[in-house]
Amino acid sequence: MRRTRNLLLGLALAAGLLTAAPPPATAGPQTAASYTWKNVRIDGGGFVPGIVFNRTEKNLAYARTDIGGAYRWQQATRSWTPLLDHIGWDDWGHTGVVSLASDSVDPNRVYAAVGTYTNSWDPGNGAVLRSADRGATWRKADLPFKLGGNMPGRGMGERLAVDPHRNRVLYLGAPSGKGLWRSTDAGATWSKVTAFPNPGNYAQDPSDTSGYASDNQGVVWVTFDETTGTRGNATRTIYVGVADKANSVYRSTDAGATWTRLPGQPTGLLAHKGVLDAVNGHLYLAYSDTGGPYDGGKGAVWRYATKTGTWQDITPDPQAYYGFSGLSVDRREPGTVMVTGYSSWWPDTQIFRTTDSGATWTRAWEYRPYPNRSNRYTMDVSSSPWLTWGAHPSPPEQTPKLGWMTEALEIDPFDSNRMMYGTGATIYGTENLSQWDSGGRITITPMVQGLEETAVNDLVSPPSGAPLISALGDIGGFRHTDVRQVPAMMFTSPNFTSTTSLDHAEKDPNTVVRVGNLDGGPRIAFSTDNGANWWPGQEPSGVSGGGTVAAAADGSRFVWSPDGAAVHTTVGFGTSWTASQGIPAGATVEADRVDAKRFYGFKNGTFYVSTDGGLTFRAGATGLPATGNVRFQAVPGRSGDIWLAGGSPTGAYGLWHSTDSGATFTRLGGVEQADTIGFGKAAPGATYPALYSSAKAGGVRGIFRSTDAGKSWVRINDDAHQWGWTGAAITGDPRVYGRVYVATNGRGIVYGDTAGS
Questions:
Q1: Within a 10 A sphere around the Cβ of 438, how many other Cβ atoms?
Q2: Which residue in 88, 116, 362, 479 has its CB near the most CB atoms, within 10 A?
Q3: pLDDT of 409 higher than 70
Q4: H-only helix segments in 190-239
């Protein structure tokens, strides 16, 4: 599925709430509680645009994601360890990783170029993070421009590279016309390479007024020719790729002092990747007519002879209707090269392999005859069974798919049998790659455990049934009966591209409703078995997106505030809808957890209440936050008891409480800012549910808990566990005291337990 990142786009439009100065603190410093943190297991769920193997140490590999940080491979457990969880709220943009570089001279050193958007959606500049302990700890060098880990062209690269002989020298290709940058002190400081002549000129859509698709994709990769240097001396020959269809490749032969356009190069396409086989003196280039990662209708693969200057078109499929990107040379067998047709969406992606430097190619699958396919691989997704999407396609499509958005492919430099490649949903890999050449079939499996990259929109933890049901961007959501296990399947019947909201009936947790986005609909679905099975409901006219939804306490009715239409109510399961009166379109809706006819709404600083099942609403409290993101929840077991969190630093921002169904609210003085609110099992000896919030209290941003109805709060996360932006949703577990589920934007669902529980 495509990583549209609707959640982060909505965040970005309200990005002022992340960066402007907060109001003065009204409470003293908070004392951190002792918590352990883990991921709710989904395994993957997002685009992996880059995989990097260290060239001198076996089994040392890294992966980057577009919004969910970076990871290091752990060979002993065959899993990935997250490296950027320390990034906090104010620097949320640094969870987008545009490039990684692993130092082949000193394998302990690793670098990450971070920043999510180059337009106004990300208010902060980019940075280069450097680590001397393989990503366990980091130091930061701020840059005077933005980087785009989630921008068009993010699958090209790598933009960041370490000189293989003089490892204090690094290069970084910048977007937005900022050119080529260099560090000579191991990433501590950076300066522009003023001699580099071309900052790029390609933009996906120059007419885009948001600045997202109209940004110049810039300088996109750096490759060293290691044969032109000696230990301790800067490598002489460097190749650089530029997003310019007429001038894609430049070369320096004097360690970056001067640069020239590589003569004779092909034109009309963009060089996504440039990978050098130094043994045979071949620079391989994978081209596409666009920057990707979604689009691309034409491509080519070329080989450049570094000693003679000869160019050779070695495109494996000259009739390709897609672009090429994922590109790797087998370092143990340098004439062996693999490349992906990254933008071949239908019927599947394509992977090509040559063992004679591109003279001849074989492909992962071919028609025998159309529409039947003969595959050089078998796929085993039993560890992540949801990767079939519950689909039953007709030939030539198959499930699970070989992939899509396959811009990252790497052959292990120490093991010719191992290859990994990234897709829009996971990392796949094989460990019997030589079977490809001997007539057998390679086995492809997910190699993604530990890498969690979902963007989370909503969470519920019902009092019975599954402990967690989630609403996710891009892959819809899951019902977790065990948070330590990967669920068998995401929500189906229907499969939303993104689920925007869900709710369960408090007194009947088997009744669950979800809404989301799906081209052409349906955009609402119901379940009567706690989310195990679903069926689509009917829609009011005009619906264009999911919006928010609420289930009556007894499951007898539902209120839906969809995108594109008015708030509506239905008795039963959505066979007919009635427009609600007295509440504006686009209001956020929630249900009372006791009174089945009582529903609530909020928009633009005004709270609304209905006592007739959502047929009519009346305005209640005003003066609540009129700007920024606002979320509210009703307390289980207490009719009319409501907590509201949100706002922006330019207006009201904090946490409010009502005990009269929203007629009046009282602001809590000890919380300067709050963005989510949720409830869990009461503390031992307490009668009021534990409260959880992603908030700022005592001048500190974090995840907070209150066990005394909001009178006092304690921070339960720590500086090593911050996960960037956590403002979408939070919920405690009604069955386990202390357990809390936290929504992140790109690091999946994180759950915390009190230490020792």
A1: 7
A2: 116
A3: yes
A4: none
- Residue 36: other Cβ atoms inside 10 A: 12
pLDDT digits (tens, 9 = 90+) for 90-103: 999 999 999 999 99
For residues 353 and 362, is the Cβ–Cβ distance under 8 A?
A: yes
Q: How many CA atoms within 13 Å lie on the side-chain side of 368? A: 8
Instruction: Pull the structure tokens for residue 196.
Output: 């580099």
% pLDDT > 90, the chain:
95
* Residues whose CB falls within 8 Å of the CB of residue 732, separated by 6 or more in sequence, listed in order: 461, 678, 679, 680, 681, 689, 690, 691, 692, 739, 740, 741
Cβ contacts of 700 within 8 Å, gap of 6 or more: 29, 30, 715
Over residues 743-754, the pLDDT tens digits come to 999 999 999 999
For residue 337, what pLDDT is reported? Answer: 98
H/E stretch holding 171 reads: strand 170-173
User: What residues are paired with 579 via a beta bridge?
Assistant: 568
Which residues are CB-neighbours of 308 under 8 A, at least 6 positions away? none
Helix count and strand count (H, E) for the chain: 3, 59
301: closest CA among 275, 280, 281, 277?
275
Q: Which residues are catalytic?
A: 66, 474
The secondary structure element, H or E, covering residue 7 is helix 6-13
Catalogue the E-assigned strands of 34-156.
35-39, 50-53, 61-64, 70-74, 79-82, 97-102, 110-114, 127-131, 139-142
- State how far the Cα of 19 lies from the Cα of 29, in Å rounded to an integer: 21
| Per-residue model confidence as pLDDT tens digits over 562-581 | 999 999 999 999 899 999 99
344-383, pLDDT tens digit by residue? 999 999 999 999 999 999 999 999 999 999 999 999 999 9
Please answer whether residues 299 and 322 qualify as being in contact, where contact means their C-beta atoms are separated by less than 8 angstroms.
Answer: yes
Q: What is the DSSP letter of 638?
A: -
> Residue 206 pLDDT more than 80?
yes
Residue type, 38: K
Mean pLDDT to the nearest integer, 102-120 = 98
Query: What pLDDT is recorded for position 755?
Result: 83
- Residues 49, 155: contact at Cβ < 8 Å? yes
Average pLDDT, the chain: 95
Note whether 492 and 502 are within 8 A (CB): no
DSSP string spanning 414-464?
T-TT-EEEE-SS-EEEES-TTHHHHTS-EEEEE--TT-B-PBEEEEE--SS
